[in-house]
Write a structure and sequence with these properties.
Number of domains: 1
Number of helices: 7
Strand content: 15-25%
Shape: globular
Helix content: 25-40%
Radius of gyration: 16 Å
Largest sheet: 7 strands, mixed
Length: 222
Amino acid sequence: MLKSLKILLIGIAFVSSANQPYTVKIGVLKYQGGGDWYSNPTALSNLAVFANQNIGSQINPDYDVVEVGSTDIFNYPFIHMTGHGNVVFSEKEQLNLRLYLEAGGFLHIDDNYGMDKYIRTELKKIFPETDLQAIPKSHPIFNQHFKFPEGLPKIHEHDNKPPAIYAIILEGRIAVLYTSESDLGDGWEDEEVHNDPAEVRLKALQMGANILEYAFKTSNRL
């Protein structure tokens, strides 16, 4: 079954049109529990444009919303998840998300401040045998097109804690990337949303491009 899912994941994520050069779409994960999954509505579009201009990707800036339990999730090689509050996955959603990740999918979770204790609990239900692992500064994700020798950049301050980055590793590759105490997505938003300095937004976009590049390379997508 996993073999067929891998074929599905590789085969149908690409979109073609004579009127646009885009070869892939990415998605935002819609989940239950009351958390605002719809936070940062301009973030992924801006990141896609930045990545297309700087690392040669062909990502459609018009991302899709995909529900955790839907088979549509297999249409997307890269799914982004964010929010400030509670997250709840049903048993069906847990199984669907696990199958997606085992089939080669990539989930980036960016804590927008307030979801940490909830997402950790739900991830443990999906992968009870696997813990989130801290990612060292030497990891290739920090050494893609853009170089981050000091690791994950800090975009917004909340609790005076350093930025943290964790992963669930499946078959030697990152399947779930979890960024916390950083707020990368806020840095991807339109400039007027948070009024971040240009250099801060640039770091956020560069790190986001690295994440995309790593995700697509490890699934032969870029």
